[in-house]
Amino acid sequence: MTKEMTKEEFAAQIIEGIKAGRLDPCNDVMFGEIYSDLPQYYWTVENGKVTEESPFYIDDEQPEFRFGVTISDIENYTEKDFGELSEDEVKQAMLGIIDDYGVDDWYDQYQQSLEMED
Predict the structure, then answer these.
(1) I need a surface site. Which of 36, 43, 54, 80 has the fewest CB within 10 A?
(2) pLDDT tens string 21-49
(3) Measuring CA to CA, how many Å separate 49 from each of 36, 77, 112?
């Protein structure tokens, strides 16, 4: 069984992942909205690390716990079309969203996903 992350570790991994370019904006894949011209990613926790996955490559093995800052979140936050934003602006928007809204909901979902594994 993987050691459970604290909320602080969870948030730090997300922020570090965004800054390092390991975590990209997510599509709203959990709601079945797939736009072929945009990145197809979601974030999940694997082996105690926040990581990015693509739904196109793992089909049946998609983890139950999927989360992330979505393209529509970024558009709403910046009030700009996603295509108009530079890579740096996208990173800043994702960090701003996390700074403003926190990770509480995601962390709660993460804890629930661990309970389901037991």
Answers:
(1) 36
(2) 999 998 765 444 555 555 567 888 988 89
(3) 28, 26, 16
> What sections of the chain are H helices per DSSP?
7-19, 55-58, 71-78, 87-101, 104-117
Dist. CA 109–CA 93, nearest whole Å: 22
Find, among 30, 114, 32, 19, the residue nearest to 68 by Cα.
Answer: 30
How far is Cα 82 from Cα 33, in angstroms, rounded to an integer? 16
pLDDT digits 0-9 by tens, 43-88: 889 888 999 877 655 445 666 788 999 988 999 999 999 999 999 9
Pairing of strands 42-46, 49-53: antiparallel
C-alpha 34 chain-centroid distance:
16
